[in-house]
Each structure stands twice: as C-alpha cells, then as structure tokens.
Design brief:
heterodimer, A: alpha/beta, Rossmann fold, six-stranded mixed beta sheet, four-stranded antiparallel beta sheet, 21 strands, globular, B: Alpha-Beta Plaits, 2 domains, six-stranded antiparallel beta sheet, 4 helices, 6 strands, about 30% helix, about 35% strand
C-alpha cells in the first residue's frame, strides 16, 4: 500500500469517496442537508476531482452539533470518545468505532515504522493521556509496531527524565516545546539528553514548529526530530515524516488532502501554499468530508526518496486563524520563530505580545539570550537586540520591539504552547 | 606578573524589575558569599550586575541554579591615591597608551581606594600601570 503507484492510490480513493458520499447522503441528516443546499447528489461524483463539488465542513459544525449530532454510528458501535480542550471555544467531541480505532493505529504504525522505529525500541509517550488524542493515539501506534511503550503522559518532568534514563527510552513523542523544557530540566539535574540517555528520535507535533527549531533540537539533544501531524477531527495524530524528513506522508487510503485558497475555497496550483482541507475516507463513527483544518501548508505529490508514493505535507506555515494583523500587515507566529531561530544568540523560547498604543498596534517580542551569548558588556547585549529587531523587520515587513529577558523566565508549556499574548481590545 | 592580577568578576544578566537585586543578593548570602565590590549597569529593560566576590565559584553555582545567566569576566583592580587627582593619574596612564576602558567602578576600603577596570587588553594595562608606579592588586586580596 505504501508504495502503490499514484494512479492506483487515486483510483482507490475515488472508490472510497464514492461509497462514503452515498453513505452520508443516506445516514447523515447534517450532510444530506448540506449537499442539498449546494445542489449536489452522490451521482454527481464521477471522478476524484469531483470532490470539489462537495460542501465543506468547519470547526464550528462540530461545536454547533455538540456533543454527538454528527455521529452516524449507533452509540453501541462507538468504542471511544475524545474531547478537544476547548481553549478556543466550546469543546468538541469526536467518536470512533472499532474500525476507526484500528485505522488510526494502523496509520500511526506505518508512520512510526517509516521513521525507523519498531521492535526493540522504547517509546516514551509524553503527550497527555485522556481526553486529548495525543497520548492514547501514539500509545496504541507504538504498541502495534512491537515497541515497548513508556506511558508517562505529561508533567512531573524530573521523573520523566529519570525514567527515560533508567528504562533506556530510544524515542519520545511529545510537543516540541515540552521536549525543549525537558532538555532544560535535564541539564539542571546534571543530565545531558545527548550524552547520558539512549534517546535517538523525537516524534514531535500538536503545535506548529519550524525547520530551524528542528535543527536546534537535533544538535542540542543528539536526536532525529520527526514532524507528526493530525487533529482530533481526523482521529488525532495520524501522519508523520519518514527518515528522509522530507514531508509528512498522508496515507491516501485513509485521507484525501486538498490545498485551497482560504478566501475563495478554490484549489491552488500544485505546490502552492493554502488551507489544508481533508476528507477522511474510511471514518465510520463521525465522517469528515472536506474538513477545513485551518492549517496553511503545501503538498508535494512526487514520490519520496524513501519509496513511499503518498502525498507529502510540507511544514505548516501558520493557521488561517492565528494570523496577526499588525498595522495592516499579516504576521504569522511561525515567521517570527523562523527568523528568531536563525539567530544563534536567541534561546528557544519566545513570546509575542501584541498591544495597542494609541491607534497603533505594537508588537513586542520577548526573547531569552542564550547562556553562551551572554556578555558582560551592555553594548554587546544592545547589539544582539538591534540585530534581532533588524532581522524581524526584514522578515515581517513590520517593526517589532525586542525585549531581552532572563533565561528561563518565559512560560514553559507541557502541552501545546501559547506564544502569543494579544492585549488589544478591539 | 599579570596573571595574578587578573580578577574574576561575576556578571549577572538581570531584568530591570523590583526584587531582582534582592534575589541575587539573597542567593549570595545563602551561599556564604561576601560581596567586595559591585555595580549595576542598566539599559532599557535589563541590566548587568557585576560583582567581585570572595567565592566566585560558589556564587556562579548558586546563581546558575536559580536560572540566572552568569558569566565570568577578567577585570583588574588598581590601587588609587585617596586624594584629588587619584583617578586622573590612572586614567591618564591608560589614555596616554591608547588603552580603552570598557567600564569601571570604584570603592574605598581597607586597601585604600580601588578602581575596578575592564579593558580590552588587560596585560598591557597592567604593564602600563606598574610602569607608572601604581599597584595592581593581586586576586588573592579578594579571592
């Protein structure tokens, strides 16, 4: 399946899509209404490209249909629920049949295998267990490939580091910001993750991060850092990079990915950046068709050097809804991270504070100066600040003020990090 | 000998916020570290606390444990005449030799008036000062 020729994958996708649309038209009152409103009937789907005729689903559809009105499986057949944290609104509930769980696990088993993990590995799962999909998702995926699972969940970082050492964990799954935090805590304990542990791979995701951050994590902690992708609406973390680290393999038998212009909803040219829209082709309990994930990225359809033929998702460059508008200019936090991480004097943690001074938006970037770059001379420190301000202005086309703060003083996050503080009252 | 006149100053990066100096001073007190001379250089929003202490290693350890960025910097300590013109004599010796002073602070204690200097080329500065008949205090006086 993983090396199936592109044309065959697409034929398979078409068959799955067609069956899915008929099923939804018959069993989902919600989607039946949507299709009727758009004037499309299952018979209109005559090729894979006809997916574009189908109506979208968005996050608010899940909220509006809270808790389980989008489910089409009987409650008897629902094997599990997960619930999103609801930090940005009302919580959303997702449900899984046994088949859904096994497809989710299969997807992650392929993903973990592709980044070189398997029997003999000890995988520490430091994503939250419970209502969040990260912990249990990776847990079952790691078990499926025959690895030994260390289900530490989040928190109690010192104990996590002891266990990582004592049980010789070879891989860890967590958010990139939590791994950075662990690295710092380990150093305070006198432990170098690079030299004093067996860790060699990180399966990192659940929040956007950049190539620059990957380089820092890899050289500091002596591991390979792999980007994993998913959201609870798709099942949870689902897709990951392989050892080539050239994009995230989106298994075509499970998901059909489109990249759309966020404004018009039209497909962008191949390789262009746009909003990811995903159709889950085999989900039973809660089908998702053309779900607008809100992440901005591009997709590469060429086969991967590893031999796998499925489309490869590139770095997420932002979210449709985390874009900041500063004095009329669009700014994505990922652009800021990208610029900051290219400057060796700047530490891994930063905070973006947006405020309004009079009529003007004001953006302040708080950074920690790295220990190695700390100079006793004020002029050197001012120089670092000016350098960072200059780089940011070039990258963002809008001025940002930079504040140097003490190392370790910015908030650390165990789950998803929150780097933006927007104090503007609009 | 220039080497024995090199004194290890500790420099601490600190945000310009109430309670910061207290936190640094408390850490030094708890480590049993005595401060012999110190100064604060301030910039916009942050500052650097510089101090000559009797136990620099312990000071470094205690402050690093609290998460502070701490660096050692080599400075020199010059004995001054405690009278009008004392500072001029030293400054003139260095200025005359085109040696730039990065920063300086002074105190008057048991050894008389002492000027702490950070210069780009401490070995040259020590040679100039000694040639000018002034004394560079050895680090054993402090540490």
């Amino acid at each position: 399946m993983e090396e199936m020729p592109r044309a065959e994958i697409e034929r398979h996708q078409y068959r799955l899509l067609k069956a899915l649309v008929y099923k939804l038209y018959s069993f989902s009152p919600f989607y039946h209404e949507r299709m009727k409103a758009r004037g499309v009937h299952p018979d209109d789907i005559r090729s894979l490209a006809d997916v574009r005729k189908l109506p979208f689903m968005v996050k608010s559809d899940l909220r509006d249909n809270y808790p389980d009105k989008l489910f089409i499986a009987d409650q008897d057949d629902v094997a599990r629920y997960h619930v999103s944290s609801g930090t940005t609104g009302k919580p959303t509930v997702v449900g899984y049949t046994q088949n859904d769980l096994s497809n989710w696990t299969l997807s992650l088993a392929r993903a973990l295998t592709s980044c070189g993990l398997g029997r003999g590995d000890v995988i520490q799962v430091s994503y939250g267990y419970g209502l969040f999909t990260g912990g249990l998702g990776l847990h079952y995926g790691a078990e499926r490939i025959g690895a030994s699972v260390l289900p530490t969940s989040v928190g109690n970082t010192e104990r996590q580091i002891e266990l990582m050492q004592d049980l010789r964990a070879t891989a860890i799954a967590c958010t990139p910001s939590y791994l950075l935090h662990m690295g710092e805590v380990a150093e305070k304990m006198g432990i170098s993750i690079k030299d004093d542990t067996e860790l060699r791979a990180g399966i990192l995701g659940a929040e956007p991060w950049t190539e620059q951050m990957r380089q820092r994590i890899e050289s500091w902690l002596g591991i390979k850092a792999y980007n994993i992708y998913g959201t609870s609406e798709l099942s949870g973390p689902m897709f990951c990079e392989c050892t080539e680290q050239k994009g995230i393999h989106i298994w075509g038998d499970l998901a059909l990915v489109e990249v759309l212009d966020p404004e018009t909803g039209e497909t962008v040219a191949p390789g262009e950046t746009g909003e990811l829209t995903i159709t889950m082709l085999q989900k039973e309990a809660m089908p998702m068709i053309r779900y607008r994930v809100g992440d901005l990225s591009s997709v590469d359809y060429d086969p991967c050097p590893c031999g796998r033929t499925h489309p490869r998702l590139q770095r997420i460059t932002g979210r449709v809804d985390d874009m900041l508008i500063i004095r009329g200019i669009n700014v994505f936090p990922s652009q800021i991270e990208h610029a900051l991480m290219a400057i060796p004097e700047v530490g891994e943690h930063f905070q973006i504070v947006v405020d309004r001074k009079g009529a003007l938006d004001d953006m302040l970037i708080r950074i920690e100066v790295r220990k190695e770059a700390f100079s006793d001379k004020i002029t050197d420190l001012m120089l670092i600040r000016r350098k960072v301000e200059g780089r940011l202005r070039n990258a963002l086309n809008v001025a940002a003020e930079v504040e140097l703060v003490e190392a370790g003083s910015l908030p650390r996050f165990e789950g998803k990090s929150k780097k933006v503080v927007d104090r503007r009252v609009l | 000998m220039p080497a024995e006149c090199m004194i290890r100053q500790i420099s601490v990066f600190s945000e310009n916020k109430p309670g910061k100096l207290a936190s640094i001073a408390k850490a030094l007190q708890e480590g049993g570290v005595n401060i012999l001379a110190f100064s604060i250089a301030e910039a916009d929003g942050f500052g650097v606390v510089r101090a000559i202490v009797n136990k620099p290693e312990i000071a470094y350890r205690e402050l690093t444990r609290l998460g502070y960025n701490v660096a050692f910097t080599e400075v020199i300590a010059v004995g001054m005449e405690d009278r009008p013109g004392g500072l001029y004599e030293i400054a003139d010796l260095l200025g005359g030799a085109s040696l730039n002073i990065e920063y300086a602070y002074a105190y008057s204690g048991k050894e008389g008036a002492v000027l702490i200097l950070r210069v780009d080329n401490p070995a040259d500065a020590i040679a100039r000062i000694q040639a000018g008949g002034r004394r560079c205090l050895p680090s054993s006086v402090f540490q």
